[in-house]
Amino acid sequence: MTGNNNLKIYVVLVNLGAWRHTIECMESLLGSTYTNYSCVVVDVKDIDRSLNHLNNWLEKEKDDRFVLISESENKGFAYANNIGIDYALAQNDGHFMWILNNDTVVNDDALEKLMLYYNENKHTDKIGFLGSKILDYTKRDLIENVGGTFNPLTGYSVLIGMGQQDIGQFSGKKMYVDYVVGASMFLPASLIKEIGLMEEDYFLYFEDVDWCLRAKKAGYVNLTCEDSIVYHKQGISTGVKLSGSERNLGNKKYLYTSYLKLYRKHFKYLIPVAYLILVKQMLGKLFRRNKDEARLILDVLLSR
Questions:
Q1: How far is CA 34 from each of CA 26, 29, 115, 193, 287, rounded to the nearest angstrom?
Q2: Phi-psi label, residue 79: left if phi above 0, alpha if psi -120 to 50, beta otherwise
Q3: Vertex 286 angle, CA 282 and 289, to 5°
Q4: Is 279 helix (H, G, I), strand (E, B) or coil?
Q5: Global model pTM greater than 0.85
């Protein structure tokens, strides 16, 4: 890469019992055309002897750009990411952060493209977060998203491009978005000093939306770099695919409670909209005879 390879980037990964996927992600980072980075891996609770497997990989690679931190408590996705971010900030040598899901594999030039895009646009836009084009890990021409929109008046969030075949339909377009998804969030380290870390009150879900909304409120714009490509295995990083339906139902509770928290924090005067959306969700679950999830939504609605 030409120019600005002198700017150090910290990549932050969180591992929750999915060490095989974390290793595959790290191996994809080894091929990065942007080489001035450090990767901080935060392991949570050493599930399935993750620490042993990750340490073995580190010893085999002998690459001091990779750092492993152990956290004994699971206090949520944002909390674990903040451990990695705090470590990176304490080194006092990083210019940018790349928050990356551990269930991703990145193109060799994914990080380089983010850096180039930032430098090309920083003089015309006050950039907060940059996202990548997220493609399905298995069907690699299938778009998961190129960022998202959130309309507080309707209560709906839309993942742009979701389910579309990637035929270059977003190429050459400047993609302003309300938020970039947590699978790939690139940002200047200085932004954290202004708007703070990830909000840990969201145990799971909507922490990425919240962070991006805070950036917008501070006068920044969020964009998607379509040339930065990240392949994503949905559900691994949150543990949905690691266990049965009970764990999945527990994650749904976080989804609904975090949705209400987002409204209470950013759109408190529109909180009736959020309640209406959840009531519609509950009725839909009842219609499809999904009584367990309908009861879960009711519990969320009645909780304070």
A1: 14, 9, 9, 25, 51
A2: alpha
A3: 140
A4: helix
A5: yes
pLDDT score recorded for residue 244:
45
- In this prediction, residue 237 carries a pLDDT of 56
Contact 125, 37 (CB under 8 A): no
60, 154 Cβ separation under 8 angstroms:
no
SS3 content of the chain, % helix, strand, coil (to 5): 40, 25, 35
Low-confidence ranges of the chain (pLDDT < 70): 1-4, 235-247, 304
Model pLDDT, residue 5: 75
From 297, 248, 278, 303, select the one nearest 156 (Cα to Cα).
278
Work out the angle at residue 105's Cα, subtended by the Cα atoms of residues 72 and 161, and round it to the nearest 5 degrees: 110
Q: For each of the domains in the chain, give its residue range(s) and CATH number, in order of start.
A: 9-232 (3.90.550.60), 243-302 (no CATH)
Beta strand spans in 125-174 (E): 127-136, 143-145, 148-151, 156-159
Instruction: Transcribe 232-261 into DSSP letters.
Output: E-TTTTTTGGGS-HHHHHHHHHHHHHHHHH
Q: Which residues of 60-73 are buried (b: 16+ CB within 10 A; e: fewer)?
A: eeeeebbbbbbbee
Radius of gyration of the chain (CA): 19
**Helices 291-302/245-266 angle, 10° precision:** 30
Question: How many of the other CB atoms lie within 10 Å of CB of 290?
Answer: 15
Q: 4, 62, 53: which is closest to 30 by C-alpha?
A: 62
Q: How far is CA 18 from the centre of its chain?
A: 16
Q: Report the C-alpha gap between 152 and 177 in whole angstroms.
A: 14
